[in-house]
Design goal:
The complex is a heterotrimer of chains A (89), B (270) and C (131). Chain A is built from 3 helices and no strands. Chain A has 89 residues and is mainly α. In chain A, helix 1 runs antiparallel to helix 2 and helix 2 runs antiparallel to helix 3. The chains are: A mainly alpha (89), B mainly alpha (270), C mainly alpha (131).
């Protein structure tokens, strides 16, 4: 049974999703293999989409999920396959 | 060195000041209360937008000019991308002819092809439903266009680009559909101005409903319902036109990106 | 009013968003590969949008700004106005998402074209070319 005085559920879920976004964004930027960086940035977008749902913004959710998880990731993967995969220096 | 320290201290001070007052408040700002109160107010039709959804009515009625300029920016980005990857159709024909002998089995395996046929239909149906209901539920033109763009991408990956092109989804088709959508948006935005010739004087561009507080007679506005169906004046027309524009713009980008590098190397003459 | 744990969590989330902004600014400025700069730029733009929605939230409300009937009575409208979330930042953020996406698509196309002409995407070598 969940104790009734433990009320800030929404704030806890929001804090969890934004912390996941911070961790994934950090690993996406310091990663040298660009394919892994693109996939990690897609994961960070999913964490943001969860935050948009919790903040009661369904219009933005419908626009953000196909653009950030679908279109950005595919554009980056096409660009990586036509240029280089690893980043030096 | 001193400038770095000054910058650092200023950043800390501004972040701390921003954080002191930061908890979300219990009241809304007056502008937000105005939009929420007037978007579907059948008792005082002075400022209503005939739609139960505040965000879509703000996008296409109250702040419609913002959205028109945003569509212009999108249009310019697509034009820039098409211009960077330009080629002649005759060169594409001759390239395909020369590669005809070496064409092995194209696309991914049979399981992927069958599943892609199913999900293609589902994605297209979902995007059309979201576009047509944009004035009643969350959704609208941009959302539906982005969701639609995933379907030709799946088709290009599972079958090949040449297969999708033989079905009629070429660069020129996409450009034609996009132009149709943009002309529709411009026409609907300017039709109130054309009604000045018929003697109406209280007209504005991107006008949805008649305004009783302007000079009378005001432009009578687009129909709000058709029997039991709730159209919302211009909102449904704008949503459908924007859906066509955005969907064909994205499809064009993916068609251009899936051309092989060998083709462009030959085009640039190396 | 919300509890102490709730207020601490709101400040924590504000700090997390600022940390993501600073990491992505580091990514744009320091990393030398053009595609990595583009990834960091998209993260920066998305974080700015999330911050806007974050500020427009109303405490204790989970109702999106959408009416549920087509013929609301005045008391319905009054309840709606006192319990819905702010719709103004949502409208601005939809515009911002589409504009950022258009700019990113153009950037990726141009960087592919730059690779075809110069065979490198490292910023130091690109800046050594002349014209």
């Amino acid at each position: 049974m969940i104790p009734l005085f433990f009320s800030p559920f929404l704030e806890l879920l929001l804090a969890f999703s934004l912390t996941m976004a911070l961790v994934l964004a950090y690993f996406a930027i310091v990663q040298r293999d660009l394919v892994k960086a693109a996939v990690l940035s897609a994961g960070q977008s999913i964490a943001y989409a969860f935050a948009y749902y919790l903040l009661a913004a369904p219009d933005i959710l419908f626009a953000y999920i196909p653009i950030a998880v679908g279109i950005y990731t595919v554009l980056l993967l096409y660009a990586i396959s036509k240029t280089e995969r690893f980043e030096e220096g | 060195m001193a400038s770095t320290i000054v910058l650092f201290v200023l950043t800390l001070v501004s972040v701390a000041l921003g954080a002191t007052a930061f908890t979300p408040s219990l009241d809304l700002r007056p502008l937000a209360e105005f939009y929420l109160e007037n978007c579907l107010n059948q008792f005082n039709k002075d400022l209503w937008a005939a739609s139960p959804e505040a965000v879509t009515s703000m996008l296409w009625d109250y702040r419609g000019l913002d959205t028109v300029y945003e569509t212009t920016v999108f249009f310019l980005a697509i034009i820039g991308s098409v211009a960077a990857f330009r080629f002649g159709e005759a060169f594409l024909r001759s390239y395909e002819e020369s590669k005809r002998k070496q064409r092995r089995e194209e696309g991914l395996s049979l399981i992927v092809k069958v599943i892609t046929r199913l999900t293609f239909v589902l994605i297209v149906a979902l995007s059309i439903a979201i576009a047509l209901h944009g004035h009643l539920t969350p959704g609208g033109g941009f959302q539906a266009g982005s969701i639609f763009a995933v379907a030709p991408l799946l088709a290009i990956a599972a079958f090949s680009r040449r297969f999708v092109e033989e079905f009629g989804l070429t660069k020129n088709t996409c450009l034609a559909i996009r132009t149709t959508g943009l002309i529709t948006i411009a026409l609907i935005a300017l039709i109130p101005l054309l009604s000045i010739a018929l003697g109406f004087t209280g007209v504005f561009i991107i006008q949805n409903q008649p305004k009783p507080w302007a000079l009378q007679p005001s432009f009578p506005g687009f129909p709000v319902y058709l029997g039991p169906i709730w159209l919302a004046g211009t909102l449904i027309l704008f949503n459908v036109a924007e859906f066509l524009t955005v969907a064909s713009g994205f499809t064009l980008l993916f068609i251009l990106l899936s051309l092989p590098e060998d083709f462009f190397r030959r085009l640039m003459g190396k | 009013m919300t509890s102490i744990l709730g207020q601490i969590l709101w400040l924590y989330m504000y700090g997390v968003l600022l940390a993501i902004v600073s990491i992505s600014i580091y990514g744009v400025v320091v990393r030398p590969h053009i595609l990595k700069k583009i990834i960091a730029l998209t993260i920066l733009a998305d974080t700015a949008n999330t911050f806007m929605i974050f500020i427009g939230y109303r405490l204790g409300a989970t109702v999106p700004p959408i009416l549920t009937t087509l013929n609301p009575s005045p008391s319905d409208i009054a309840t709606f106005v006192s319990s819905a979330v702010d719709p103004v930042p949502q409208c601005l953020v939809i515009t911002a998402i589409v504009i950022n996406m258009a700019v990113t698509a153009l950037l990726i196309f141009l960087s592919i074209q730059a690779y075809r002409l110069y065979r490198t995407l490292h910023v130091k070598e690109l800046s050594r070319l002349r014209g």
